[in-house]
Design brief:
The protein is built from two helices and six strands, in the order E-E-H-E-E-E-E-H. With 125 residues, the protein is an alpha+beta fold. The strands form two sheets. The chain has a four-stranded antiparallel sheet with strand order 3-4-5-6. It has a two-stranded antiparallel sheet with strand order 1-2. Strand 1 and strand 2 (14-21) form a beta hairpin.
């Protein structure tokens, strides 16, 4: 198991969750995101962590196009478990660029081989 901290912030709104993943899960996530977007209807979705248990952390991630001009966005739902046994959820929608996804994929591929690295998917302005 690998503990990962997922933080998301768009300058006004955000959330953080500690998520437990199987070894190699971040490499699998990189494979899912690699080459996004390939076609006009391309959507990439995946789940991380645990959405079913109280007190656990998880994330739901969806990358998609938002218009015919090819603008991209991420919709991210972060679920954080608390010590009091309740969960809190934040859903964030933010614009992204294909180059930012490519950089994020490259950073993700390095994480399973090291302790303490960070991967950033930077939102567009």
């Amino acid at each position: 198991m690998v503990e990962a901290r997922l933080s998301s912030w768009n300058g006004e709104f955000g959330g953080t969750a500690d998520i437990y993943l199987s070894y190699g899960a971040l490499t699998e996530m990189a494979q899912i995101l690699d080459g996004f977007p390939e076609r006009p209807t391309d959507v990439r979705e995946f789940m991380l962590g645990d959405f079913d248990s109280v007190g656990c952390g998880g994330a739901s991630v969806r990358l998609h196009k938002i218009d015919l001009a090819g603008h991209l966005a991420i919709t991210l739902t972060v679920l954080t478990g608390t010590r009091r046994g309740t969960n809190q959820t934040v859903t964030l929608h933010a614009p992204i660029e294909a180059a930012a996804v490519d950089n994020f994929v490259a950073e993700l591929r390095k994480i399973d081989d090291e302790i303490g690295p960070t991967a950033f998917l930077r939102f567009s302005n």
